[in-house]
Specification:
This protein has a domain of about 80 residues: GMP Synthetase, Chain A, domain 3 (2-Layer Sandwich). The protein has 7 helices and 3 strands; from the N terminus they run ααββααβααα. The chain has a 3-stranded mixed β-sheet. α2 crosses α4.
Amino acid sequence: MADRAWEVPAAGGTVMDRWPDIAAAISPKLPSHVSAVAYNPAARQLDLRPDSPAYATQLRLITARIIATANNAVGTDAVHTIRVLPSGAAPAPRTAQPAPAAAATSEAPVKTRETASAGYHQALAAHQTAAPPSRIDPGIAEAVARQTRAMRALSQRAFPEPPDDAPATIEMARAQRRRQAAATEAAALRRARQERAARKSGTSADAPESASLRTTA
């Protein structure tokens, strides 16, 4: 019984899916002017909608033929009655659509802030403009200031700054060293002159004495 209960709705779905073939078996022009729009499995009723009153009249005349052709197509008596709906634009017949081929996936380039679109940069600029300024806790700010002052005082004690007259003192020391060097050099020159003069005096005094000694001999 359960199998039978499922058989009729399944057959009705088959009739709906195969309606273009069923209609073409009755008349080649019928599929483009009449569409199967619904199926009632309880009443085994197939609803057809023609696109014009003329085809509505034709459907009523060939109802028995439509039922026989539909049941023959699905292999069971799924259709007992045909209901012709008011004429209107017939939707395109349902056909099995092939599964779309999977698009080849390609690795898209990684987007960064530098390569982002102009709209992203505009939105980012607007957000940064509208963002409220950051609020700093006064207690934290005071603690940071105290720590900064303490570190500055420690640095000054470890590396004291030279007094304002330090450059003058350094220059004075350099001048003093230059004067001492000049005095030492002058003293050395005077001593060298004195020694040279003494050597010259000693040589001129010894020469006559040697000559007199040779004469006496």
